[in-house]
Specification:
The complex is a heterodimer.
Chain A lengths: L11 H26 L1 H6 L8 H24 L6 H18 L2 H7 L3
Chain B lengths: L1 E3 H32 L9 H33 L14 H6 L5 H14 L2 H16 L8 H30 L7 E3 L5
Antiparallel strand pairs in B: 1-2
Helix pairs in contact in B: 1-2, 1-6, 2-5, 4-6, 5-6
Classes of the chains: A mainly alpha, B mainly alpha.
Chain lengths: ~110, ~190
């Protein structure tokens, strides 16, 4: 995604942090939805019994977020990246996270 | 004047970490907006920049403390399973809410939403703090970086608002009770 149209500053690290935040939010929603939709996934997400599947959902989402941030930062550090495209994807991913954590929307997707 | 350990931790989680984090949004949004409009001097004074950085770091710490204390301290008490034959569910908030159709949606919608959406706030605010500290006023060059910073700040505010509001309602209909008693003061 490196290019020169938005090259006033080397914004690669900023772009990496922004897109990774979007990925982390979407991961939170996707894991929450998966745990709600499937009993076997729900059991697999039970990392810490007193907190139930929520412990697996949040742990995995944080890992996905940090790994994505680390990888994107290594890829884009010191470069100029197209912030418009990164913003669009980040907000789409954020919306995915917000929607998939909303129980009535989860139920709608599952046809409940 | 007494308080139980479960009550105390619920207060620390909600009113200590969570409410402080929520209150800090007004300052953060105003300052980030001010920074991103370009109406600040080209060179922010080191003191102003340090203050903003400390403010954002404090918000990030509060955000993570809120969600971790919620998930690993208060939530296990909320979802505790009563022994077979228990009729008084006052110490088992989740089961108490689910025991009646008049209150079950406070759990099925309120708690289920709150417990997940709240985690978006620390992720978003960590990014906001990192980008603001790294770029400062340069988030306006190009302006799209400031769009992401402000957008995710507002999203974190909304997520925190949802979690805080449902936390307050849930604590009204099915408060987390129990634990050992701490005597704070004795009356005459």
């Amino acid at each position: 995604m490196s290019l020169s149209q938005s090259n006033e500053i080397p914004n690669g690290s900023g772009g990496a942090a922004i897109l990774a935040a979007g990925i982390g939010c979407a991961a939170m929603g996707i894991f929450a939805f998966a745990g709600d939709a499937s009993d076997s996934i729900n059991k697999a997400l039970n990392f810490y019994k007193p907190s139930g599947a929520l412990s697996g959902v949040t742990t995995l989402a944080i890992i996905v977020w940090l790994v994505a941030w680390f990888a994107l930062d290594r890829l884009w550090r010191g470069t100029a990246v197209a912030m418009v495209r990164i913003n669009v994807w980040s907000f789409v991913l954020l919306a995915v996270g917000l929607l998939l954590t909303f129980p009535p929307f989860m139920d709608l997707l599952q046809g409940k | 004047m007494e308080i139980t350990t479960h009550d105390l931790w619920t207060v620390v989680h909600g009113m200590g970490f969570g409410a402080l984090f929520m209150l800090a949004f007004s300052g953060a949004i105003a300052e980030l907006y001010h920074l991103s409009t370009g109406n600040v001097p080209a060179q922010q004074s080191p003191r102003d920049r340090t203050l903003l950085n400390l403010y954002l770091i404090a918000m990030v710490v509060l955000a993570w403390l809120t969600v971790f204390s919620g998930e690993y301290i208060v939530y296990p008490w909320y979802r505790a399973v009563p022994p077979a034959g228990t009729t008084d569910l006052s110490l088992f908030p989740r089961r108490l809410l689910l025991s009646s159709g008049k209150t079950s949606e406070w759990h099925n919608v309120g708690m289920e939403w709150k417990e997940h959406v709240s985690w978006l706030a620390p992720i978003a605010m960590t990014m906001v703090a990192y980008v603001t500290m790294k770029y400062g006023r340069a988030i306006t060059r190009p302006r799209h970086m400031r769009t992401a910073v402000l957008g995710f700040t507002v999203a974190a505010f909304v997520a925190t608002g949802v979690a805080g509001a449902f936390g307050a309602f849930l604590n009204k209909y099915a408060p987390v009770r129990g634990g050992s008693t701490i005597v704070l003061m004795e009356g005459e």
